[in-house]
Amino acid sequence: MATYVVGDVQGCFKSLRALLNAIAFDSQSDHLIFAGDLIARGEDSLGVIDWVLSHQSAVSAVLGNHDLHFLAVAAGLRRPKTKDRTDALLTSSILDDCVAWYRQCPLAIDRPDEHALIVHAGVWPGFDRLKLLEALDLVHERLTSADWIAALDTMYGNSPAHWDQADSEDAKSRFLINACTRMRYVEPDLSLDFEHKEAPEYVAHPLRPWMDHPARLAIDRQVIFGHWATLNGRRRTQAVLALDTGCVWGGQLTAVRLDDRHLIEVPHVI
Ligand SMILES: [Mn+2]
Question: In the chain, where are the structural domains located?
Answer without folding.
Answer: 3-267
